[in-house]
Amino acid sequence: MLGFWKGVWLLNGIGYIEWIVGGLVLIGVVFSFLSAVGLIRFPDVYTRAHAVSKSANLGVLCILLGTFLYFLIEDGYFSIRLLLGIFFVFLTSPVVAHLLNRAAYRSGVAMAEDSVRDDLKEYLERDERV
Amino acid sequence: MFQIFLSGCLFFLLLSILAALYRVVKGPSMPDRVMALDNIGVNLLAGIAILSIFLRTYAFFDIILLIGILSFVGTIAFARFLERGVVIERNRIH
Fold first, then answer.
1. Domain segments of chain A: what residues?
2. Does the keyword Acetylation apply (chain B) (predicted)?
3. Residue B1's CB: how many other CB atoms inside 10 A?
4. Is the complex ipTM more than 0.90?
5. Which residues of B are less than 8 Å from A79 in CB distance?
6. Which residues of chain A are within 8 Å of residue B45 when distances are taken between CB atoms?
7. In a 10 Å sphere around its CB, with 0-12 CB exposed, 13-18 middle and 19+ buried, how is residue B10 labelled?
8. A92–B72: do the CB atoms touch at under 8 Å?
9. Which of A3, A23, A33, B31 lies at a C-alpha separation of 20 to 30 Å from A61?
10. Residue A61: which residues within 8 A CB-CB, separation 6 or more?
11. Residue of B nearest to A15 (CA)
């Protein structure tokens, strides 16, 4: 059984590094493509922000991690710049999504017609009265 | 074989960038467009990472970091402009 999987691994000269990195890159590309589908299909700006800010950034994290592992294992090159890029994307993507949603709500972009709850509206009106 | 796989991944990233570009052109409101532009920046970062595996070069890592920072700063500036009408506030004390 082990010999079979070793044969699969070594097929066409593909080593195990390529399988790991290819898996990470494939996960990342699938997430990124699904978030693009969500960006087209969802009805209003808040649901689109949900699609974009979660899955696209997770996909990018997977792809950058795959690149980091590829150069670490294949060449023994520890890239601190790539690690900083991963950390920076991980840190800034929720901030960007939150600020854009806040700007959209404050500038009066309407929600979709079939959305059922708007808690922030009551809160803001109470804040106006006080 | 691995190179063909990476080329296919780059093609799907191109498709998602085109989808975001459609949202930039059509998007009914302004935050939609800014969000799609931010998504284009993030997808471009992923494409450059895949391209640096494809070419086996270290030269693009600086560009990954730089596009990440510039996309973040640009989106923050757009969000402040959409919310308040100005990017940099003056006279905060008054």
1. 2-129
2. no
3. 11
4. no
5. 58, 61
6. 60, 64, 85, 89
7. middle
8. yes
9. B31
10. A28, A86, A89, A90
11. B2
